[in-house]
Amino acid sequence: EPQVGLYRHLFVFDFKSLYPSIMRTFNIDPLSHARAGDDAITAPNGACFDRERGILPAMLEELWTQREEAKARGDAVASFAYKIIMNSFYGVLATGSCRFAADELAGAITEFGHYILRWAQGRLEERGVRVIYGDTDSVFVDPGLAEDCPAAEARALGERLCAEVDEALAEHIEAEYGVESRLELEFEKCY
After folding, report:
1. pLDDT, tens digit, for every residue of 53-86?
2. Under a CB-based contact definition with an 8 Å cutoff, are residues 90 and 106 in contact?
3. Any residues with CB less than 8 A from the CB of 106 and at least 6 apart, and which?
4. What share of the chain is helix, strand, coil (3-state, %, to 5)?
5. How many helices (H) and strands (E) does the chain have?
6. Of 55, 70, 78, 99, which residue has the fewest beta carbons closer than 10 angstroms?
7. Are the beta carbons of 155 and 10 closer than 8 angstroms?
8. Are 35 and 51 in contact (CB under 8 A)?
9. Mapping DSSP to helix (H, G, I), strand (E, B) and coil, where does residue 179 land?
């Protein structure tokens, strides 16, 4: 639940393209959807996925690379187009008009999203900061800094804290699921 109030030095940490990153990390694909097995990747909703790279995660890898290249060129239109295309991969898996749609696939993506956000909240709270709000792909963090803390100092703390959580999440995903994390927590803003 959101923590109502006025805050100074509020950090916003955002998971970059969360749903496509989840699909890339956990190999969520109609053809990799598998029965439970010793080596399967099991989503929080119980859906299982093979470890052999699926078609959609491979396509997302290529689109991700193209988006990063567009960003590096300063091509905001292409970058946005790639982002929308990547996000549509979840949409087609969640709509009944797509022949590849399946509640288990869409549910695996959203449940991994919830899991990751809750994990990040727990990790941040272990560090002594408070998450006052979370939405689909971001968390709003009250670091508890004094009102007179210089903005540059607050921002530097936010960047360090975000990088620490991002690194810890990658280690957690590797240890828990045996896969390389393609999730990226970014320091978006400091209000």
Report:
1. 999 999 999 999 999 999 999 999 999 999 999 9
2. yes
3. 90, 93, 94
4. 50, 15, 35
5. 5, 7
6. 99
7. no
8. no
9. coil
